[in-house]
Amino acid sequence: MRLPKFEYFEAKTIQEACHTLKKLGEKARLMGGGTDLLVSMKQRITTPAVVIGLKKIPETDTILYDSEKGLRVGALATLYEIERSSLVQRNCPMLIQAAGQVASPALRRMGTIGGNLCLDSRCLYYNQSHFWRKSLPVCFKQGGESCNAVRGGNRCYAVYSGDLAPALIAMEAKIRLSDGNQENVIPVEDLFSGNGKSPLTISPHQILTDVIIPPAHQGDGKFLKYRLRESIDFPLVNVAVFVEKAKNGGCESGRIVVGGIDSTPLRMKQAEEILRGGRLEEDVLDRVTKAVLKQVHPVDNTGGSPALRRRMVPVLVREALRQVYKN
Amino acid sequence: MKKIIRLKVNGEIHEIAVDPWRTLLEVLREDLGFTGTKESCDLGTCGACTVLINGEPMLSCLLLACEWEDQEILTIEGMATGGRLHPLQESFISHGAFQCGFCTPGMILTAKALLEENPHPSEEEIRKAISGNICRCTGYTKIIDAISAAALKK
């Protein structure tokens, strides 16, 4: 499949990229690694007049650690660089678990952390060639008035399939956004709108420049991913748990995040309440997984059946919590 | 608008005019004649278009040619030196590690990058390294055997 025609603009600074983005509005798209954008362009899901390349902006791929502020990862750092970084290994092993399970080894050398966070939501009835899509009504995601995945559905159910976001949310990470003049820092959780049609809250003039992960101290996390094949594929379900352990070996507080089910990574707040203050025994795990199950309602729009994806959520949550406590 | 770029492929510099929307795969195959780099899914899923850029395996179907000026690009045509096949190529032949051969350039280049980084990989490490390269003929056993044997000879 050929790419549609476009002009390429190589940005040298963040300011320059933001300025161009402002000038061109919706006609322009930002490109980091390009592994999500170029596929969408080949499928004519998006056809920007201008692609703004970010790769040549200096110092946007640096990984730094500060014992007070935590880990700072530039948005253009590739997933492979993160996987191989001793700084990340020492200070944030869950990020390596998540980055190391994205797509395939070659794609991880191309795709970036910023691009993975800003992944567009996906649906079996949307991420197809133009020819394939032509046979179905125009859906919400394409600007239409119906959903091809859920009959009678009144919104877009496209799934957010990023692997890093659940892990980053569980670790209470933040992102820095820049519009060229001003910067602001928001929790990763606030990046997601919950709306399948436009899953990100980032404004059209902003660029994600850094990811900041606070120091873990007493905490420990685990990321698990379930997919059709053990490589290449997007998740059918992914789960990230992060637990701050109490001195008595119990759980002071914990966060559980589930991805691949809804248009946003889901925080399992009810289950987190059950975890808080308790010890990790079988009856607590039973209550946690029951609470988790109440919150997940996948529809038939990715590779696995919704029933399988739903059933796998408590399995993965239980396993992740067990592994955290084994350490 | 076309831009004149210098692509360094297999150690040789090629100065060509390319449109921004052309992928590295298209330019390698259609403009420079390196047809050993294969086009299959063209969406980053199969690994047939793998090339090494500065020693790292990447998928040329999802790279814009204009972004890779002056980088060391290696295709399967650059593996043999002085008229002699690379030990990995020899090993693929002696183990019969292909049937239709379409995945082979990507497999061999991916294996080369693996062995440069990890000269004695375990079977699991080999399986992980080639997990993004899909073979639809023989299965992977002989491919893994060929890579292991080449590693032993190193």
Gist of the model:
The complex is a heterodimer of chains A (327) and B (154). By secondary structure, chain A is α+β, with helices and mostly antiparallel strands.
State the shape of chain A: globular
Report the major sheet of chain B.
5 strands, mixed
Architecture of the largest domain in chain B, according to CATH?
Roll
Looking at this structure, what is the CATH superfamily of the largest domain in chain B? Answer: Beta-grasp domain
CATH C-level class of one domain in chain A is: Alpha Beta
Instruction: Tell me the overall shape of chain B.
Output: globular
Judged by helices, strands and strand pairing, the structural class of chain A is alpha+beta
Give a quick account of the main beta sheet of chain A: strands, pairing sense, barrel closure. Answer: 5 strands, antiparallel
Assigned CATH superfamily of one domain in chain A:
CO dehydrogenase flavoprotein, C-terminal domain
Overall tally of domains of chain B: 2
Q: Percentage of helical residues of chain B?
A: 25-40%
| Rounded mean pLDDT score of chain B | 97
The strand count of chain A comes to: 12
Average of the residue pLDDT scores of chain A = 96
The number of E-state strands of chain B comes to 5
Strand order of the largest sheet of chain A: 4-5-8-6-7
Structural summary, described in words:
- The complex is a heterodimer of chains A (327) and B (154).
- With 327 residues, chain A is of the alpha+beta class.
- In chain A, helix 10 (269-275) packs antiparallel against helix 11 (282-295) and helix 11 (282-295) packs antiparallel against helix 12 (306-326).
- Chain A is 31% helix and 20% strand.
- In chain A, the strands form three sheets. In chain A, strands 4-5-8-6-7 form a five-stranded antiparallel beta sheet.
- Chain A is globular.
- Chain B is 32% helix and 16% strand.
- In chain B, strands 2-1-5-3-4 form a five-stranded mixed beta sheet, with helices on both faces.
- In chain B, helix 2 (87-94) crosses helix 5.
- The longest helix of chain B has 14 residues, at 104-117.
- The model of chain B has no long low-confidence stretch (mean pLDDT 97).
- Chain A binds chain B through residues 1-8, 10, 34-35, 38-39, 42-43, 51, 53, 55, 80, 103-107, 109-110, 230-232, and chain B through 1, 3, 19-23, 26, 42-45, 47, 50, 56-59, 62-64, 66-67, 110, 128-129, 131-132.
